[in-house]
Amino acid sequence: MIVAGILTPFEDALAAVLEFLHESIGLSWAWSIVGLTVMVRMLLVPLTVKQIHSMQRLQRHAPRMKEIQQKYKHDKPRQREEMLRFYQENKINPASSCLPLLAQAPVFFALFFVLRDFEDEILPRFPGADLGWLDVVPNITENAGSHWSGYLLLAIYAISQTASTFFMSATMDRFQRGLLLALPLVFLFVVINFPAGLILYWMTSNLWTVGQGLVTRRLAPKGMAAAAEIARRSSRTPQREAPADVAAATGTPARTTTNAAAVTASPRRVKRKKKKVRR
Q1: Contacts of 274 (CB under 8 A, 6+ apart)
Q2: Cα atoms found within 13 Å of the Cα of residue 227, Cβ hemisphere only
Q3: What span, in angstroms and rounded, lies between the C-alpha atoms of 235 and 250?
Q4: Share of the chain above pLDDT 70, in %
Q5: Which of 32, 79, 196, 277 could form a disulfide with 21 if both were Cys (CB 3.0 to 4.6 A apart)?
């Protein structure tokens, strides 16, 4: 298989790390996967920092981006052109928010192949080793759907995936965000055939992302969260005046709105035409 051949170096590296955590540190195989996940996420911290900065810039400029989308909503080519120009002028790279996820893809697939051949290639060198986890998952190499505990693991995965998506999609509109929040439920029909150890890796990575999102929200300026909320408003909903602190945080001028009550209070005067008197 071509993919397996390309991922062979990753498989060997992951197998070596798992064996080190199990043999030298004394972790069980399941907890070795958890430790491997933490190590991978720590190595991805530079990309994660870049991702956080990109999300903060997107939130900072979210109101202006929403204005461009509304202005050219009937001209999609012009809208894309203006958005690309806006990204270049403000040094925004939307793709940088996906870097940690893309960097984990080879690890994810390599771990799949390691667990698939685990009982034949690794386990014989460690006779009597426990493949369970927390007395709940009996065997991390079996498919998640082969035991009732696998469904519990899948439920935790779905919740953690939804929570991590909630933090990672702060700058998206309601439709896109709702679609991403619903995807974990669709993926359940796919990941149910994955080894339980792979679900454990994915779940641990999601929990790391949730913790990262909580820390980022606590450290981020308050105006950014408000700016992201403004950007998610529906195009049918009229925009209200942005608060002064949001305007200062986003760097956009505050809009001046007209009070409807004041308009209706002063009715428009209509000049009547003078009738001509016939002599």
Answers
A1: none
A2: 29
A3: 20
A4: 70
A5: 32
Please give the mean pLDDT across all residues of the chain. 75
Rg, Å, the chain Cα set: 27
Q: Classify residue 272 by burial, with Cβ atoms within 10 Å: 0-12, 13-18, 19+.
A: exposed
Task: State the greatest distance between any 2 C-alpha atoms of the chain, in Å, as a whole number.
Answer: 123
163 confidence band (pLDDT: 50, 70, 90): confident
Residue 250 has pLDDT above 60, yes or no: no
Higher pLDDT among residues 149 and 33, named by residue: 33
The per-residue b/e assignment along 189-222, b for 16 or more CB within 10 angstroms, e otherwise, is eebeebbbbbbbbbbbbbbbbbebbeebeeebee
- Cα distances (Å, whole numbers) of residue 80 to 55, 71, 72, 94, 171: 19, 12, 9, 13, 17
Helix, strand, coil % (nearest 5) of the chain?
70, 0, 30
Nearest to 228 by CA among 164, 172, 163, 162: 172
| Residue 106 and residue 7 in contact, taking contact as beta carbons nearer than 8 Å | yes
Q: Tell me the average pLDDT across 138-164.
A: 83
